[in-house]
Amino acid sequence: MTDLIGLYDYAEQHGVEVYWFTMDNAESLSMMDPEGQCYVAMDPWRLGSLAEERTKLGHELGHCETGSFYNEYAPLDVRQKHENRATRWAYKKLIPEDELKKALRHGYREPWELAEYFDVTEPFLRGALDYYRMAAGL
Question: E strand or H helix at 30, and its extent?
């Protein structure tokens, strides 16, 4: 499991530049320039908690690490496919399956408890649970 500071370190080590500024329509976003340099923008005034910041940063790094960027001008590009790929990367980085199993063995059962344990938002945690269930064929 990577904590928030670890995510920022990860971004730095992988050459992803992270900027903080006010955005009108998003809490966070990522983009890749034509040379392959990835950038992440975070609006700290729109993030309600450190868990939300960790969740959003993990997702945006998922876009960078998987190259999952969509072109709004390409009619056949499926935006959700890119979002799903970035989110799956974030699940694996922020809530690794082996650590999730360990938390369950230690008695964490409720989604809110697990979300607090992993310091992510509850909707993100619920998505990870669904992802791991589906991956296991349950």
Answer: strand 28-32
